[in-house]
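Translate sequence into structure tokens.
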Amino acid sequence: MKKEKADFLEVNELLNRVEKQHEELRKLTGEGESYQHLTKQKHVTVYTDDKKAMKFWEE
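Result follows.
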């Protein structure tokens, strides 16, 4: 299994995509909070399929 490094911008792009999908779900259900608070953190923890955490720090 080849592991690739991802920079902060790539992670932020993925986070934005997830946030858009979540906003659509919130419109349908009328509940929950958005993921906006994650963009204000210094790092984001992403869990891979093998449950190991990778941290991406803002540069």
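Note: The mean pLDDT is 67.
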